[in-house]
Amino acid sequence: MKTFLQFLIYMLLAVVAIVMGVILGDYGSWYFAWFVGTAMIVLVAAAGGAWMDAHDGTVDETEPAGH
């Protein structure tokens, strides 16, 4: 039953995407690129913040400053 519900959800998402593509027409690819690009920028910024946070406390205190 769970697999069938997942199938229905994905099918509904596909129908919504197709309808939006028909409505948007030629602008659809631009909106898609904008959406994907914005999501990528947010994900890269979040990954960079997590990386900085993870490496913030791992500085070796025995090294002299400036090296």
What's this, in brief?
The protein has helices at 2-24, 28-56. The protein is mainly alpha-helical and 67 residues long. The mean pLDDT is 85.
What does this structure look like?
- This protein has two helices and no strands.
- The chain is mainly α and 67 residues long.
- It is elongated, with a radius of gyration of 22 Å.
- It starts with a helix and ends in an 11-residue tail after the last helix.
- The mean pLDDT is 85.
How are the secondary structure elements laid out?
Layout: H1 2-24, H2 28-56
Describe the oligomeric state of these chains in a short phrase: single chain
The fraction of residues assigned to DSSP E strands is under 5%
Broad structural category:
mainly alpha
Total helical elements: 2
> Could you give the count of β-strands?
0
* Overall helicity: over 70%
Which shape, going by the Cα principal axes? Answer: elongated
Can you give the mean pLDDT? 85
Low-confidence stretches: none
Order of helices and strands: HH
End-to-end Cα distance, whole Å, is 60 Å
Task: Outline the biggest β-sheet.
Answer: none
Q: What gyration radius follows from the Cα positions, in whole Å?
A: 22 Å
Keywords: Membrane, Transmembrane, Transmembrane helix
Protein name: Cyd operon protein YbgT
Transmembrane segments: 7-25, 31-52
Organism: Dyella thiooxydans
